[in-house]
Amino acid sequence: MAETKYIFVTGGVASSLGKGIISSSIGKLLQARGFNITIQKFDPYINIDPGTLNPYEHGECYVTDDGQETDLDLGHYERFTGIQTTRNNNVTTGRIYQSVIEKERRGDYLGKTIQVIPHITDEIKRDMLYLGKKNHYDFVITEIGGTVGDIESLPFLEAIRQLKWELGRNAVCVHLTYVPYLSAAGELKTKPTQHSVKELQSLGIQPDILVLRTEHELSAGLRKKVANFCNVSPDAVVQSIDQPTIYEVPLRMQEQELDVTILRKLDMPVGETPGLGPWRNFLDRRHKATKVINIGLVGKYDLQDAYKSILESLSQAGTYNDRKVKCHFINSEHLTAENVADEIKAMDGIVVCPGFGQRGIEGKLIAARYCREHDVPTFGICLGMQMMVIEFGRNVLGFADANSVEMDSKTTHNVIDIMEDQKNITNMGGTMRLGGYECALKEGSRVREIYGKDVIRERHRHRYEFNNDYRAQYEQAGMQCVGTNPDTELVEIVEIPNLRWYIGTQFHPEYSSTVLHPHPLFLDFVKAAIAAHKDNEK
């Protein structure tokens, strides 16, 4: 059996340069050559996982099928490659220290003084190699969060230094930096890249390949200069220029033979260049789609990364419907009965976004009511579905105080409640239903038709559930419970069949939509929005 090869992706100069997109692109290109790959992210913050982080801090929290709350980059890995990541694909400093401290408490270190080197770095190395050893991948791509020079990432870089030495020709380091353009001088500047590489070298790591993020074309001379100053071969300096969409990046990397360079540096046969046919077809349709569909996102986080997977799922669904989806953020904190018509009437469809907590709730309820009464295609996700249920309870069933126990523990109509067996758990995250669960779809329902199957599996991230005590009343009044968990009978999907498209899911379908396999619910929702758009134009 061939040995697993390891690719380490680090970043310098600035954060948010797109290490996740480059890691995903490398994974995609190697996968297209027939290799079995996985991608993992090591995050230097001390939180155990991003589950308790405000989305303003770190963007959305992505959930794997096995129920791990992870970094949003794992969403990119899955969308680009179609692989399924697990709890082992995202490791934080917090998890590393927690593991080492637990071992120390058990006496595993036989009374030794516990230090960053070797104990913390050994733990990091173990985690970096774990997936390769367990699943015998051809390639394990490891992205290190943060920027070289951050104090938090030092143990991770030391672990890479040791591993590069131990693995020899089975490891390469790809370093992503930024080449700024000074408009006053009319010049691109390579000095920050030189400093970043120098910083890496001072830690004992010589990058094998440099990927230069830039907004302007880099000349051959400039790239040669970077190669000279940074001890990197000229063919190993690749530019990553801004693209109209992140899905162009694998093609730009392939044009510059980034995958070929990686294979050569790892002493592997290169073979023929893959055609990436389905990927190119997707991009071709995307470019040709010029008609615009407007989708409103009703939520409380005015930050695109907070709803990253939803935005990407809508965008993919638009492409496969030959439309360009334009998303408009509608701040639910500012929505009132007086301004809701102005905010929503120009939209072809509305997504009532997920979230936690009280802030912005009333605006979501107002939006759900307006959409139900005006037959606007509406997709409620997680908390969004719960808002649809509460709004229906208040305004159709006449339960004036209908609410979720999360928002009002004293409500007499607890249409959304916490399950009995969760009420005594106090640890944040401990009461959550996380990861993939099965859902049985009701014969004759809209969702059964959309999915084309009886039983589906979707990912969850929530604490409160539809209260089955009210199910009969809801169904009698026209809101059908059309998806249920086969083991617990918990309601997973509601829909109002009399409306054009009014569906709420307790799960997060956006987590399982990929470039080559867009999610059926998003595809159908966008199709309904297109039909609504045509009707509105009449």
Describe the SSE topology.
Elements: E1 5-11, H1 19-32, E2 37-43, H2 55-58, E3 62-63, E4 69-70, H3 73-81, E5 90-92, H4 93-106, H5 116-135, E6 139-144, H6 154-167, E7 171-178, E8 181-182, E9 187-188, H7 191-202, E10 209-214, H8 220-229, E11 237-241, H9 249-255, H10 258-265, H11 277-288, E12 292-299, H12 308-320, E13 324-331, H13 340-344, E14 349-352, H14 361-373, E15 378-381, H15 383-395, E16 403-404, E17 414-418, E18 433-441, H16 446-451, E19 455-462, E20 464-466, H17 471-477, E21 480-484, E22 491-495, E23 502-505, H18 520-537
Parallel strand pairs: 1-6, 1-7, 2-5, 2-6, 7-10, 10-11, 12-13, 12-14, 14-15, 15-23, 16-17
Antiparallel strand pairs: 3-4, 8-9, 17-20, 18-19, 18-21, 21-22, 22-23
Helix pairs in contact: 1-3, 1-9, 4-5, 5-6, 12-18, 14-15
Q: What report would you give on this structure?
A:
The chain has 538 residues and is of the alpha/beta class. The protein has 18 helices and 23 strands. The strands form 5 sheets. It has a 9-stranded mixed β-sheet, with helices on both faces. The chain has a 7-stranded parallel β-sheet with strand order 5-2-6-1-7-10-11, with helices on both faces. Strands 16-17-20 form a 3-stranded mixed β-sheet, with helices on one face. A hairpin with a 5-residue loop joins β3 and β4. The longest helix has 20 residues, at 116-135. The model has no long low-confidence stretch (mean pLDDT 94).
